[in-house]
Amino acid sequence: MKPQIHVQDLNVWYGQQQALKNITFDIPARGITAIIGPSGCGKTTLLRCLNRLIEETEEVRVTGQVFVDGADIYNRSTDVTEVRTRVGLLAPKPFPLPMSIYDNVAYGPRIHGRRKGEHIDQLVERHLRAADLWDEVNGRLRAPASRLSTGQQQRLCLARALAVEPEVLLCDEPTSALDPISAQRIEAQLQALKEERTIVVVTHLLRQARRLADDLVFLWLGELVEYGPAAKMFSAPKDERTRAYLAGDIG
Amino acid sequence: MKRHQIEERFFKALMIASMVVVLGSLALILGTIVWRGLSALNLAMLTQTPKGGYYLGKEGGILNAIVGSLYLAGGATALALVASLPIAVYLNSYAGRSRYAELARLALDVLWGVPSIVYGAFGFIIMLWLGIRASLLGGIIALALLELPIMARGMDEAIAMVPLALKEASYALGATRLETALKVVLRQTGPALVTATLLAFGRGIGDTASVLFTAGFTDRLPDSLFDPAASLPLAIFFQLNTPFPAVQERAYASALVLMLIVLGLGLISRQRSGRLAKHLIR
Amino acid sequence: MSIEEALQSILHGQRPEPRGVSLGLNRRVKDHLARRSMAALTLAMGLLVPLIALVLLLRAWPILATRPLGDLLLATAWQPLKGAFGFAPFIMSTLWVTSVGMIIAVPPSLLTAIYLAEYAPARVHTLVKPFIELLASIPSVIFGVWGVLAIVPFLERVVSPTLGHWLGFIPLFRADNPTGYCVLAGGLVLAVMVFPIIIAVTEEVIRAVPQGLREASFALGATRWQTVKHVVMRRAMPGVAAAVVLGFSRAFGETMAVLMVVGNVPKVPHSVFDPAYPLTALIANNYGEMMSIPLYDAALMGAALILLLIVLIFNILARLLLLQWVRSKQET
After folding, report:
1. What would the pLDDT profile of C269-286 be if each residue is shown by its tens digit?
2. For residue range C66-80, what is the model confidence (pLDDT) as tens digits?
3. How many CB pairs under 8 A join A and C?
4. Does domain C69-329 fall into CATH 3.40.50.920?
5. Range B54-279: architecture per CATH
6. Closest chain C C-alpha to A49 CA, distance in angstroms
7. Which chains border C (3 or more CB–CB pairs < 8 Å)?
8. What's the complex ipTM?
9. Does the global pTM surpass 0.95?
């Protein structure tokens, strides 16, 4: 099966500091791939390279290629906004847009030209259901999104990200700002979504990786150490550093 | 999806055009003043007071206005300093985040927005009440009122930036708030306080409406606080309003002199805050 | 100065004192006195605005007490020698000139602020900021000189004939005035004067919008402008409104620059090319004569009072808007 994402010789510098060194690996289509490693190893940097959000940081330099469905997203002629409709992102801290719940979810589609009223209604409902939020907000869709609890806001952000129907969903520590119950609900939704989409999760919680991951990518100090099916890596890691990290000896 | 790309480029062009308009106006103003003022500027303008008939085109210069402005702004800045510094220190070392301090800062912001002509009118009434005639003293009082909020705000912001840890270290050693303020805080904020003072001075020297009623005007240099004092902005205004082109040219030259003073002050204050910053604890 | 030196100076700065109560007492007394006097100064400063308002009111009382307020504010006849004090031409003039000025100033200011906050690379930003601050430091009389030298002739020879010719059928653009001294001249000069304050406050407000919000929008595939339009500006709106109100307040109180270019004819303007006579110019132009004509000084002080009150209202409005903006910041 052809990989959904293929990263080739990716290098990232913040000013003079190199954050990622010669990263090459594949992310298979469908399923959940978890990027793991100790803090500061470059997980978030790597994730943000996959939808070119890394370019928003000042003084950053990126070399290498990232192929999504065979096309290099770093190609000069590629429209970055198009890349981001195919590769969505869920941030660690929920940032609801300053508008109603309805408008938050509708924001993505509207930006990309979909304006038909009823069509949007259905779309909003569909994705709020997919994020397990519909039952709680149905009836107050026009209320400001800021009034939701943190857990609800994160699910709203999930619905919002799904509304542009990306093939790939990147999740950067999606439950780190949430209480255990909300975290569990998000994890449940990600499990449900992996049937139809490719999900890439960055996490520093090994237990979360064990629960969710079909495949693992292990980073250490900006370098790719090992990647592959999660079950194999957990039981028989090839690299000593992987073994040590998974056992809790380091990081 | 080309529509949003067109939109992006259109607005980016519009924004750059706006910036060009803003900066272009600045360039236009500076350029016009320099162009028209430079040709009429000569040493006599700077070193002589107006002789008889100056406003009709005869000899003299604007020394009366230059000296008058320096006295007015100097006196006003000193007076405003005497009030601003204690207020700024008080707001930061004693009142802190209390309701009272918030109200005081609100009052300062309101004062900052009062038009200078209102200060002039107020100063005028006070002068009438005190029996003072249009004079250096009157101008100083009105200008000091104008400069006070500018200076106090600048000093307040400067002092507020002193890290709390530094003040607390001092208190922990048993120093009183006053001692901490004088020996630690003020030393730390020295350059920024100087900048605030220079900024207020620059504002004072360029203001017309507040000295209009209160300082009077004269062709001579003021000998005492109770003499009327000329000021550069008023000198510019009066020369411009004569029907003689030669005198109007002098107005442009006077405008250039005022511009250079204000620009010079701006440069100095920018320099100072840069150079002395190396002494600060970060 | 290092922190060790700072602390050393505290220790060494004290005079040797005999032991006992007097050591502590002397320092505490000084502290207490200092605190009292500084508090008194601050209080005095806080009372300044009410004091100024009161003093102006007292001085304006003779005219306020003898004429109904409505008459004063709405009458258009201004003939001090005959005792006619109708403020309408001056209030309307101020409104005309200030409004024209704001209409000209706001779009470029907002766009510039957005550019500086969202688009400009750091180098451009550090290069441009000092120049905007420079613009803010230029004295108003210099703006007036520039207005007389450049704006008035330009309007007279270029703008008024062309616009008057093409748009003259619209009352707003009727060009009866042969000179360039008009509302539009005042508006243009005022616009340039308020650029810096609107730009500075707007930029600060925009910068305060959290980066996470922008990234959330980018991650959905929005362009930078779409993000600015739908997310950033929406979030910054109360602050931007405050910036505009502050600009308006500044323009309202401006005296010299406007006085020099606006014509000073005491009639209500009906076109941007008509001359005007703002309140500030009224006070500035006539203070010389005001003591010699009965009630004239009271009238002018009344004008100053109106000016003060309006500026106060605007400032408080701006404050409330900023408070609302701070509150909206805390919501996410």
Report:
1. 999 999 999 999 999 999
2. 888 887 888 888 888
3. 72
4. no
5. Orthogonal Bundle (1.10)
6. 12
7. A, B
8. 0.92
9. no
